[in-house]
Design goal:
Mean pLDDT: 93
Order of helices and strands: HHEEEEEEEEEEEEEEEEEEEEEEEEEE
Shape: globular
Number of strands: 26
Largest sheet: 6 strands, mixed
Bound molecules: 3,6-anhydro-alpha-L-galactopyranose
Number of helices: 2
Structural class: mainly beta
């Protein structure tokens, strides 16, 4: 029996390994895995490289200001528009300091916006959505915005934190709506999406690592909300962190989920298939060939991969990338079919970078297909 399976796999190997005409009588575990997962047969359609360039104008790096987590870039009239987390780059103290100390680089933040004629040189227009008054659900920080234009209206989703910002403080998602890009933005009365009530902390201490019972993957923090209108419904994609979050073979346990609604304001109902990823960090998701593609970065066994799904739920790995940018704010055309002509279907956009823990700034990324280069080429003398 074992012999039969071995011969069958060896036969498969002969058929599957790209163009190899050599029959192999033995198959290593790595070769078997490559065949099972289609490493050599999926092709290079999704394999891309990135070039990141600093922005010019008001969004050029400024050591005194944190600008990070850009929204999608949209074009209205003659201008590109983008929204992002904005705050002063003061000292980051972490949990356990004085109540007004900055806990994270993105703490004590607001959402600002900027416009550009060419996508490189930006003019900062100022505050778009600020923190709420003391006692409201968003009185501590509003950050990591994402925009959706739908039927002439603008919908902004973003993370909200209510003071005090402690280690166990849950993070939720807020929404504001505007009829015009310059606002005014009307906030909804309460968050549109929150962590589940599963899991239990242990003791009354300010420490998220001490827990009595693990909760759902999204029972502690909901981050990086991204709103899409897809297949006639509103899809809120997000990153979840759970009570009892652990490490796995890919490092920190980070997973993505999706919640679906008939109306942009919700109610948003979690997909029964959640989590829809086992890796990733900030959400980067875009329409491609009738389905949705996503870039998973930073965390998990499948980090730095592009994945594609026919339905926005069931994603499979299509390419592994070397150094993708993080926190992509993808240019969203009004005509998503335009993506089908681009490498991996991924348009240009903005991303963020770190200069130290609290020196965050925005960059522009371009996408291209990798080219096989001969390292000695430059040194060869021309005849
Ligand atoms: C990010 C995002 C979310 C997190 C923090 C700010 O890049 O994953 O927004 O809360 O870091």
């Amino acid at each position: 029996m074992t012999l039969v399976i071995t011969f069958a796999l060896a036969g498969l190997c002969l058929l599957s390994l790209s163009g190899s005409a050599i029959a192999q009588s033995k198959l290593s575990e790595a070769s078997r895995r490559a065949i099972e997962r289609g490493y050599d047969t999926i092709g290079t359609e999704f394999l891309v490289t990135f070039k990141e360039t600093p922005l010019k104008g008001d969004l050029a790096y400024d050591p005194k200001i944190i600008r990070r987590d850009p929204s999608a870039v949209i074009r209205v009239g003659d201008l590109y528009h983008v929204w992002y987390t904005y705050c002063e780059a003061t000292e980051v103290v972490g949990y356990g300091g004085e109540p007004e100390d900055k806990v994270y680089p993105w703490d004590l933040s607001d959402i600002w916006y900027a416009t550009s004629k060419d996508g490189w040189t930006w003019k900062e227009e100022g505050l778009a959505i600020g923190r709420g008054p003391a006692g409201s659900y968003d009185d501590r920080a509003v950050f990591t915005p994402e925009i959706l234009k739908h039927e002439g209206r603008y919908y902004m989703v973003y993370q909200v934190v209510k003071a005090p910002y402690l280690s166990r403080t849950k993070n939720e998602v807020g929404m504001a709506i505007a009829d015009s890009l310059a606002g005014p933005w009307r906030k909804l009365d309460k968050p549109i999406f929150s962590p589940t009530d599963t899991g239990k902390w242990k003791g009354e201490i300010n420490d998220r690592t001490i827990f009595a019972e693990r909760g759902d993957f999204d029972s502690y923090k909901i981050h990086d909300p991204t709103l899409l209108y897809y297949n006639g419904e509103f899809r809120l994609y997000y990153k979840g962190q759970g009570i009892g979050q652990a490490f796995n073979m890919g490092g920190r346990e980070i997973k993505h989920g999706v919640a679906i609604a008939e109306k942009p304001e919700g109610p948003y109902i979690r997909s029964p298939y959640n989590p829809i990823s086992n890796s990733g960090h900030e959400i980067a998701i875009w329409p491609y060939r009738g389905g949705l593609a996503s870039l998973l970065t930073s965390d998990g066994p499948e980090r730095n991969t592009i994945q594609w799904s026919p339905d926005g739920i069931n994603f499979s790995i299509k390419a592994r990338l070397k150094h993708p940018p993080v926190a992509l704010g993808i240019y969203r055309s009004e005509n998503p079919e335009e993506n089908d002509t681009l490498p991996a279907g991924l348009p240009w956009g903005l991303a963020h970078k770190y200069k130290g823990w609290s020196g965050n700034y925005l960059t522009r990324y371009e996408v291209s297909r990798p080219v096989m280069r001969d390292p000695g080429f430059k040194n060869r003398k021309k005849k």
